[in-house]
Amino acid sequence: MTSRPFSISALTRVFGVLGHPISHSLSPAMHNPTLQAMGLNAVYVAFDTPPEELMDTLATFAKRGFGGVNLTIPLKEVAFQNIARLSETAKLSGSVNTVVFHADGSMEGHSTDGYGLRHAVEEAFGKGFSGQKVLLLGCGGAGRAAALQAASDGATRILLANRTTSRAEALATELCHRFPAVDVTCASTWPPSIEETQSCDVVLQSTSLGMKDGDDTLLTTEHFLPSHCLLDMTYVKKETPLMKVAIVAGAQAVNGLGMLLHQGVRSLEIWTGQTVPVEVMRTALRNHVYGDEN
Question: Are residues 124 and 243 in the same domain?
Answer without folding.
Answer: yes
